[in-house]
Amino acid sequence: MHCPFCGKSDTQVLESRSVEEGGSVRRRRECVNCKKRFTTYERVKGVGLWVIKKDGRREPYDREKVKRGILRAVEKRPVSREMVDDVVEQIDREMLRKEKEEVSSKIIGRSVLRKLKKIDKVAWLRFASVYLEFEDFGDFEKAIGKA
Description:
By secondary structure, the protein is an alpha+beta fold. It has 5 helices and 6 strands; from the N terminus they run E-E-E-E-E-H-H-E-H-H-H. The chain has 2 domains: about 35 residues; about 100 residues.
């Protein structure tokens, strides 16, 4: 592991613990060279999951893309970064449990909507407006009526 401060590869693990319900390992490290401390996370690399987009294109599943979409929806809302990370982890596990090589973007989007609805209705509506491609105020009214 290279130190993010000085770039040397000689680091020492000070503490390790399981996080995200055992889905990854958090390690607190210290650089032997500059003595600065930093945190790393280890997780099992995804198993080649492909996403089928609305237009039929295929692209590799990217948890960071899911996270960016959720972060945009919860911007300036009382939702912690930990809650977002937890939602992303739940979606990852849900997609991998399907035991398929391909998953529709619709399935991922619906999963995000279900989870956002439980934690913040405004963030849910923001995400829905982009995901469901709202075109006018009437679309918002319909969505709010269903909420």
